[in-house]
Amino acid sequence: MKVLIVALALAVSGCGAQVPAAEAADAAVEMVALQEVGFDAGDAGDTAAEKPGVRPRPVRKLLRKNTLHGEVVVRTRDGEERTVVVQRGAVTAADDKGFTVKSSDGFELTWTYGDPVRVAQNREKAERSAVRAGVQVGVGGVRDGAAVTARLIIVG
């Protein structure tokens, strides 16, 4: 958990955004949920989150490769419930406000960019322009009603 909070702090500071402590704690809850459904903080280029000599568990490795899409409801430290959404697939459309991803089973979802949002490609920080039609992505974020907001996008 401490590693996750450090990774989150690195991700937020890497985006240049000032985030209040309460929002950072809620984002930590989101990152835990994203990890539980197969996203790895190391995928976002946060090498501090990686542990040398520790091999990933085979089940989690398969989950990362085989997860297409899903939602998990988590409880924040304030007792609020938050819906965390994950999806893997091909970007079918993208603009400066958001993008649409279609998973291999045909499920399609339109995402808006979060503030902050972390974009990574090849374990390095990337610009939002890397999210364009035709590229494969893994994306995680939160649902608020019908709106789905991306917090972490892994290109490639």
Describe the overall structure.
By secondary structure, this protein is an alpha+beta fold. Helix content is 24%, strand content 38%. It contains three helices and seven strands, in the order αααβββββββ. Strands 2-3-4-7-6 form a five-stranded mixed β-barrel. A hairpin with a 2-residue loop joins β4 (108-121) and β5. α1 (2-14) crosses α2. Mean pLDDT is 73; it is low at 1-25, 46-50 and 56-60.
* Rg (CA only): 15 Å
Number of strands: 7
Secondary structure: helix percent: 10-25%
Question: What is the topology, as strand order, of the major beta sheet?
Answer: 2-3-4-7-6
Number of helices: 3
Give the end-to-end Cα distance, rounded to a whole number of Å: 27 Å
**Strand residues, percent:** 35-45%
Class computed from helices, strands and strand pairing: alpha+beta
* Basic shape: globular
List the helices and strands and how they pair.
Layout: H1 2-14, H2 21-36, H3 58-66, E1 69-75, E2 81-94, E3 98-102, E4 108-121, E5 124-125, E6 136-144, E7 147-155
Parallel strand pairs: 4-7
Antiparallel strand pairs: 1-2, 2-3, 2-6, 3-4, 4-5, 6-7
Helix pairs in contact: 1-2
List keywords for this structure.
single chain, 156 residues, alpha+beta, 5-stranded mixed beta barrel, 7 strands, 38% strand, disordered N terminus
Quick description:
The protein is α+β, with helices and mostly antiparallel strands.
